[in-house]
Amino acid sequence: MFGMENQPQLNSAETQERARQLLALISSVIPPQEQRQGSQYETGNSSRPTGSQIAHSSVQYEMARSFPGLFRNGRKRPSTSVSSRFASLSNKKWKPFDLSIFLLSSNDELTPLPSDELAFMQAGLGKRTVSLDRDLTHVELSRLLQATYPKMVELQDRWLLYKAGGGNGRRKMSAIPLEAEGYTGAMLRKVSGGGKSTLYIVPLQDELDLSPLPANAPEFALMPKASCKHCFAEMPLQMLALHDCKCASHTSPDLEIISDDDDDDVQFPEVLQTPVPVQMTEEDHCPQQKGDVQCPICGISFPVLLIEEHASHCGQRTEDTTSPERELHPETDDISCEEDVIMWLKSKVDTSKTFELCVSRDNMFERGLKLWKRNKKATPINPLRIKFLGEAGIDTGALRKEFLTTMVSGIEQRLFEGVKSKMPKYSVNDFDEELFRIAGEIFATSIAQGGPAPRFLQRWCYNFLVSGKLSLDQVRDPSLSPLITTVAEASDMTDYIADIMDCGYTGKIDMEHKENILRAIGLHVMTKRMPMLQQLREGLDLYGFSQVMQAKTEECRSLFVAGDDESVDSYYITSHLAPVMSERGCNKHHKETQILEHFQDFLHELEVAEPDATSEDITTVPSVMQWITGQAHRHLLLSDRQNFKITVKFDHDCHKMPNHTICYPTVSACTDTITFPVAHMSDYESFKNVMTTAIKYGAGFDRA
């Protein structure tokens, strides 16, 4: 200690200078790699890491073990900015995607039925699959669609893409809005869910022809083809599946080959020719069974199952034949009466699922309208099934008829006005809620599924539903407006000038122009109701009914226009009674005969009192019919009328309800059966009181 005090002390400048010299000497001797190792360890191979270095290494190891996504090999992963991520995504290569598209024939709001897809395919429309890129433009998309569907050239870009909603059957479609540059590949990929959803091409102002194309049409150029084993006609495989069902069942093994020399003597009614320009000539033919359907091109009759296939190739004949315009619905040619119309509608019911409604008897009409509109799981083209709230009844047809009877009657009172023949009420609220469209659907469903027909329309209303035009020869009908009757009988027009001008008449108002005034009033009344009738026609198109009405106007008229009174009367009920009587001559048989006579007198009394009935709760003959069978109308089909029976049973002892003072008749609408309690109907007055109470309060299935 004392010796060090005698040594000379170095100043700070000299100390720093010596330190620099020492570092320079070490750097010149130790290699760079050993220098980096020296930053972690002490000099020399035998040196050990310090405590701080061990702690730092263990911390890095624990962080990498706990957070492998953030740390890799003891080091934190370099962070990437959001912009760099999007830049990498934008540079990613876009793979083309497949999109399913379906070309419709006209501007329709609903998707086509699966059963109609084959008809679209045969016409060069229907479903196709195209491959799209992300950078596809609207112009390129239009060219691609025109190449896929040659018929789209006629549209001249007057089309939009639609997307169908959820559910089954015919679904409602909504238009896909265009972007500023139109439809693009990126947009369609997003809208279709990457190609998972089918998009529909809807013509806006045009209507494409649905007539079947020949097998060599350019629309079928890419489709795989095969030749028929029986008639050797080459056609696409999709068409061959349908053609085989017709050709194989009508082809005889003993085919007669006609030589070229006998071409002029061929009897076409005995053979079915299906010529195709390369593989088939007029020598090839298939025999034909008897039929009464006429080909619209050559005029020759063929079986119903073969007419479509024949007509699709008939236009390719080398013969000189005229080609008149084909009818839109050749299957309606067999309709010749009202019963044929009903049978045609029944054949259009799709039984793949059911259209189910659960309603209350207390407010059946209003609730029925709302539930009918809300139901999205099925459509009214499916069989209707009704369930009444709080009742155990199972619909086997009677509940459906009861519901349809109530709905048609309610529509007549709520949406139409008039005495006997009626026209739609001018109600903007009902029109805005689409109640007239629902009414049309209920009318078509009722006729097709056993309900009543709406036989209460005025003649001009039916003519407008059929043709879309007003009948000017009926504008003076007094039922259109009380003002028509008043003006027609007036000797001076001065008091009616304001009313006449409110009808849109702007001409001279005097007696000399009375005819023009009456026409103006009638046209005013009818034109106000045109939107309601147009909406009603949309509903009637549910089963394609409106098209049948256009093709068979007179055959369908009696289903809508008010004519002869077709309501149920006392004779219609009593003539179809089938009583289960006791042995003739016994006391029970005598009482049963009295009950039947009381029932007949009861119906006659109701029939006489009906014209004076003003209350809605009054008992009528149709209401008795509805109480027993579920329907208040005559059967529309003649076969149903002939098979209709009301089974009448008699309960003499009332064993089911012991120790009681009163008992009421019971009915089973499912089996059209009524049971009378004989002990409580000894005279007519007691019969009348018991029957009236039972009809008024015994419509449900909730009795014990």
Automatic annotation (TrEMBL):
<keyword id="KW-0833">Ubl conjugation pathway</keyword>
<protein>
    <submittedName>
        <fullName>Uncharacterized protein LOC113098346 isoform X1</fullName>
    </submittedName>
</protein>
<dbReference type="GO" id="GO:0004842">
    <property type="term" value="F:ubiquitin-protein transferase activity"/>
</dbReference>
<feature type="domain" description="HECT">
    <location>
        <begin position="376"/>
        <end position="408"/>
    </location>
</feature>
<feature type="compositionally biased region" description="Polar residues">
    <location>
        <begin position="34"/>
        <end position="57"/>
    </location>
</feature>
<feature type="region of interest" description="Disordered">
    <location>
        <begin position="33"/>
        <end position="57"/>
    </location>
</feature>
<dbReference type="InterPro" id="IPR035983">
    <property type="entry name" value="Hect_E3_ubiquitin_ligase"/>
</dbReference>
<keyword id="KW-0808">Transferase</keyword>
<dbReference type="InterPro" id="IPR000569">
    <property type="entry name" value="HECT_dom"/>
</dbReference>
